[in-house]
């Protein structure tokens, strides 16, 4: 039997993505790109809550989402977009109003209570506010899921030591949560979530209460766990940095719908939906400098300059394309802003240039021919 | 103060402590599960049973709103059924327990409700049963609050126990009324008051200290 092992980086050849027309990502559900080895699968899931005034509130509409085994999938959305509800459906803390939630082959929504509790042992969860018991030490907190699952004492002791070592808190084992920093508390949370050796880890805004540096260290830990244990991670966040740093797949959620999903690099370098763009605009380097933004107009007047945003992706990120533009076409581009960044471990550059309004079409044709993403943003006089 | 008087005070203090201890113990055994249930059985909660919750709530409120002295008299037939008599220290334990149980239940309900909902969610997420959540999460996390609640209940019971003196229940209250008031012995009255003050102080400071030691939410230097 052929066994196709999933590696996110190699699932679709880069060439296929590179040559794909714009819109390819947005039009194609993630499931079709991925071999059918999703450990978590949501099929046409909707969730409606009874509202306060009797009007039902729809939190999620017809969500289709597949989390490939061993991957890190990030769901990003503004608050109220429905991402919390979405993640809580995966371990049955919420029941869908319609649709199916399949985790490791079992329909979570259809499981009776006892079976659901059993299934939850293979789905770990970490929380924004850590949710540790204040009355238990770090080690005792980590032991709790094991006690609940009925492990015996020696087993618990060994497992807790392993987990403390894994998250680097062996020396804090007897500290109470009130004696730990935010980052340390989340490490305890992670260790607790991993105690029963789950196959999936759900992360509910796990770094949102942490400072950037601590966030980074927690994300590094999650990435390491994903790598070393092959653990699938589904995370929800409102922070771009989280997705950029560890996710390989992203789904953008807005108004209870997934508006865009796919490979992180693809989605973020060629955003199709305005919500995705707005998340990217928060990032430095994407926004136009104010002196350009304020003078930007949509129509060309003679003598004005066209403002063009050029996206350099992957292999093109280091091409000396402006030099060629000057040499081959004698068009002098004026650099207005630019940045080179790394998304999901791949280089991505953005350059905003001004060219004489008369040579817009020549320039755009030239850039597209070189395989660069090109967008005319407007004109400045 | 004569040795007889001191002997009387000592005996009455013993009776009071006995009444309070036994009724506090029984009321806690009854009030703890009742309080936990009240805190976890509203709509959408762990043991959701909104109707039973409401009915129990009404019973608890009714018992708590009956003045203690009325309660003592009103339940005399029941007291006789349980204790075999309606007079004396053992008989006094019945109304004391009945008055203290709903009080303790409400205090425990309050302490349990103070526990962060996130902890219940976390426990559900790792597969704990509702009973495990109560025993391993809610009660341990609420313990400092529970201890303070029980301290308050015991202090109230000391006060109530003085009232059962009026119906022949024995104890310090009985002593104060019979000697201090009816026999015009102000020094006896004063002694009873002083002993009660010392008892309340002792109970309160033990309770406070225990609660503080159990509370791991605050960093201890």
From TrEMBL, chain B:
Keywords: Cell membrane, Membrane, Transmembrane, Transmembrane helix, Transport. InterPro entries: AA_ABC_Transporter_Permease (IPR051322), MetI-like (IPR000515), MetI-like_sf (IPR035906). PROSITE patterns: ABC_TM1. The chain crosses the membrane at residues 17-39, 51-76, 82-105, 146-168, 188-207. It is found in: Cell membrane. Its main location: membrane. It comes from the Bacteria. It is a multi-pass membrane protein. Belongs to the binding-protein-dependent transport system permease family. This is ABC transporter permease.
